[in-house]
Design a protein that fits this description.
alpha/beta, 43% helix, 222 residues, 7-stranded mixed sheet, 23% strand, 8 helices
Length: 222
């Protein structure tokens, strides 16, 4: 799957986004291709993601991140991407949803520097990058709260996500977690320990060109 022509990668991005009922205009397409180029270039030096192939990055990172967007409809306020890594899902969502402010929190410095670089080259004005390890007890001191929503694909660590969500989200605030079938069970087990968080629903999500079934878990801060 290596050495795919840029036009074919762009076509894959467009076709996949259409399957998600998302229209990417030419400016969006240029931004995603620039993001892809930067990620592959930095990845050679800093190993930001184990996924290095352009087609796989588009499917497993870009399209997977964009699958969050319908669930953020009507959100008013800031959205926290906890454990953003190389920018997923926060940066693709910030590209698509410029009216929403995204706070990307990443504990590792090399990934924080990459996030700052991509945000700068893409000219994103609705993104703030925070280099810190966010955990229960420091959220209120690091930025203005309450926040409207928390998104994360780092669902292998719900023990970190749920205490932070309970602290920084407004009542009625939304937690969106993308999971596989196996990680979904672990999330439900961890959620039962937090009385201020309530499961809203779990919906199946089909990511274009991926065989593995995904689930979007919606949790409400009560």
């Amino acid at each position: 799957m290596n050495n795919v022509a840029p036009d074919n990668l762009r076509r894959l991005l467009i076709d996949g986004s259409h399957q998600l009922d998302i229209h990417l205009d030419p400016a969006h397409q240029e931004a995603f291709m620039a993001y892809l180029t930067a990620l592959q270039r930095w990845n050679r030096a800093y190993n930001l993601t184990a996924i290095k192939d352009g087609q796989k990055i588009i499917c497993r990172h870009f399209l997977d991140s964009l699958s969050f967007s319908p669930f953020l409809s009507g959100i008013s306020g800031s959205v926290l991407d906890l454990g953003s890594g190389a920018g997923f899902p926060g940066l693709p969502l910030a590209l698509l949803l410029p009216a929403i402010r995204f706070l990307l929190v990443e504990a590792r410095q090399k990934k924080t520097l990459f996030l700052q670089h991509v945000t700068r080259i893409l000219g994103l004005k609705n993104v703030e990058i925070l280099h810190l390890h966010l955990h229960k007890g420091n959220g209120s001191t690091e930025f203005k709260i309450p926040l409207a929503a928390l998104v994360s694909r780092a669902v292998s660590v719900p023990d970190d996500v749920f205490p932070v969500a309970g602290e920084v989200l407004a009542p009625g605030g939304l937690v969106l977690l993308s999971s596989t079938a196996s990680s979904r069970e672990k999330i439900m087990e961890a959620l039962s320990l937090h009385e201020n968080l309530r499961l809203e629903d779990i919906k199946k999500v089909t990511i274009p060109f991926l065989e593995q079934q995904r689930y979007m878990i919606r949790i409400i801060r009560v």
